Amino acid sequence: MPQLRVALAQIDVTVGDIDGNTDKIVAWTRNAVEQGAQVVAFPELGLTGYPVEDLALRASFVDASQAHIKKLAQRLADEGLGEIVVVCGYLDRAGGTAMGIDRLGRPKGSPTNSAAVIHQGRVVTSAVKHHLPNYGVFDEFRHFVPGNTLQVVRIHGIDVAVVICEDLWQDGGPVAVAREAGAGLLLVVNSSPYEANKDDVRGDLVRRRAREAGCALAYVNLVGGQDELVFDGDSLVADAEGKIFARAPQFEQGSMIVDLELPSATGTPAGTHKGIEIVHTVLQSDELAPYEPMAPNVAPRLSDEAEMYGAIVTGLRDYVQKNGFKSVLLGLSGGIDSSLVAAIACDAIGAEHVFGISNPSVYSSDHSKDDAAELAARTGLNYRVIPIQPMVQPFLDTLGLTGLAEENLQARVRAVIWMGLSNSDGHLVLACGNKSELSVGYSTIYGDAVGGYAPLKDLPKTLVWRLAKWRNEDAKARGQQPPIPENSIAKPPSAELRPGQQDTDSLPAYDLLDDMLDDYVEQDRGSAELVAAGFDPELVTKVIGLVDRAEYKRRQYPPGPKLTHKAFGRDRRLPITNAWREDARKAAEH
After folding, report:
1. 454: phi > 0 → left, psi -120 to 50 → alpha, else beta; which?
2. Tens digit of pLDDT for each residue in 502-536?
3. DSSP, residue by residue, 38-107
């Protein structure tokens, strides 16, 4: 059978940085040529970055994408890279008068999520995404119009069908027609966001679709962080029987080179099948002379903890760098949340760029102050102690605040200090709250909830402990000092805003709370279902009430990386003004 060497370039791009993204595409194309590849594939919307959101509705941005994909093609030829076939995602417009007219229910300007096939200095054809996801974090019905063709390109005697991301996830569409077209390879360009255990789901999907299409399948995915989304790479190749034999690392930019033996193209695929027109383009009819294939790469699988930790580090690093920050600042209390955030920040951008501020109050314990100082010593981050009582006391004297108001005042004074230093020195302030606290509103708005980015926003408290323990164990395995003091992990969590305070004064134990929140937040189960699952009706009513009342706080919380199936914000969207209440006591009576 004829051979084909394919490069799957899982690159980290920035939305809107078309020039910078172009430079990366050229650089990785050159890398593919140097390694003898005949085809190099880049991710979905690799030229513009993904997701472009409402930039797709801006005519100037679409114009720039269309112009730059042509400039890219010419530049590749000018730099001696014209013979390799380049497949790259970009933003285009639907052709034809009917498709180009703005109509009710159609995105303005009829933009398309497309993939250009570039060869010898020109865009020879383009695939257009058919299935436009409109669930979870996706709003593609709002931004694009769908395609209705399957692009099949003959490369060195092999017919390669090109499709885009969601077209693989949905039944039918162009993937189903690839078998009818007699494709020897199904090439899928993707920008598939990370969430826990999604790599297993992707793997099963790729296996199944390869068998359905009756051909090998090469899947290239984006890597890097973009606001709340993190892309993990994890590019895959499966044979026609659905066996995955090549896999790229997660969270690493790079190019995976794969040698494929594929069936020769026979005839010219044409016609319309299941409402999809096959468009066939011949680039290179002659098969390559036989050559010695390279051994495929199979990246080692990450543990669940390593995967989640890698996602948070990647999301934070790219948020900092792509938004032009040089350093981050966080309140370092000695507790588990701020300790984990500090370790993550040091891993993401280097300890020399991390500033930890200890703001002890009259209620801060000696062990917490010691734990914060110890973490700073272990990691080497910049550490400063600024007691807050001299600033808190004038407020108390002037306003006469007591109780909860006094507790929240302490948190807000700390926030004023952090934001002042941020304004003065240009640091990005990190909010250290976790998903459990955010769910039930256990934070002070404009206090500890302040910041520009929240690394643990989608990480439940029980997983905070798991990741902290994993990070220390990983350090020991590498012969390094664990960054997080054992006392920060072992001690009962407390906000330390009043004498002897512990989180369990206000909340159930976190293992129980997270179990309930998984049902209510992640699974959208109502109070009756929680009671039926064995949770105490009084506790269900209390926790659900806390979650529902905290919606206004969550809307004002900083962005943070999506890790779970249902992250707050893009995934879970509920009204702030909302009179509906679940009543577990009534459910129990029935």
Report:
1. beta
2. 878 888 999 999 999 999 999 999 999 999 999 99
3. SEEE--TTTTT-S--GGGGG-HHHHHHHHHHHHHHHHHHHHTT--SSEEEEEEEEE--SHHHHS--TTS-
Q: Of residues 44, 166, 195, 374, which has the active-site annotation?
A: 44
Q: Is 129 a catalytic residue?
A: yes
Report the alpha-carbon distance of residue 462 to residue 434 in Å, rounded: 10
- Cα–Cα distance, 288 to 90 (Å, whole number): 29
Active-site position among 24, 88, 140, 165: 165
For residue 258, the cross-strand partners are 6
563 residue type, one letter: L
Q: What is the token pair recorded at 258?
A: 């794969």
Contact 50, 133 (CB under 8 A): no
Name the pairing type of β-strands 382-385 and 272-273: unpaired
Residue 1 DSSP one-character state: -
Ramachandran class of 389: left when φ > 0, alpha when ψ lies in -120 to 50, beta otherwise: alpha
State the amino acid at position 107 in one-letter form.
Answer: P
Task: Identify which of 348, 379, 359, 297 has the alpha carbon closest to the alpha carbon of residue 455.
Answer: 348
Contact by Cβ (8 Å): 86, 46:
no
Burial class (CB within 10 angstroms; exposed 0-12, middle 13-18, buried 19+) of 365: middle
Q: Which residue has the tokens 């543990």?
A: 303
* Alpha helices by DSSP H, 443-533: 461-477, 486-490, 510-517, 527-532
Q: What is the DSSP string of 413-432?
A: HHHHHHHHHHHHH-PEEBP-
Backbone dihedral region for residue 157 (phi beyond 0: left; psi -120 to 50: alpha; all else: beta): left
Residue 44 among the catalytic residues = yes
3-state secondary structure of 123: strand
How far apart, in Å, are the Cα atoms of 26 and each of 23, 41, 74, 201, 371? 5, 12, 11, 32, 48
Pick the catalytic residue from 24, 88, 129, 374: 129
Q: What is the pLDDT of residues 205-226, one digit of tens each?
A: 999 999 999 999 999 999 999 9
Q: Are 367 and 393 in contact (CB under 8 A)?
A: no
Q: What is the separation, in whole angstroms, between the first and last Cα of the chain?
A: 67
- Complete DSSP assignment for 144-155: -----EEEEEEE
Cis peptide before 51 (omega within 30 of 0): yes
Q: Which of 234, 9, 262 is nearest to 158 (CA)?
A: 262
- Exposure b/e, 202-215, CB count within 10 A at least 16 = b: bbebbbebbbbbbb
Interval 84-115: pLDDT, tens: 999 999 999 997 434 445 565 677 789 999 99
Beta carbons within 8 Å of 277's beta carbon, 6+ residues apart:
148, 149, 150, 271
- What is the pLDDT, as a whole number, of residue 463? 97
Report the alpha-carbon distance of residue 434 to residue 503 in Å, rounded: 13
Condensed to tens digits (0 to 9), the pLDDT of residues 20-55 reads 999 999 999 999 999 999 999 999 999 999 999 999
At position 178, the amino acid (one-letter code) is A
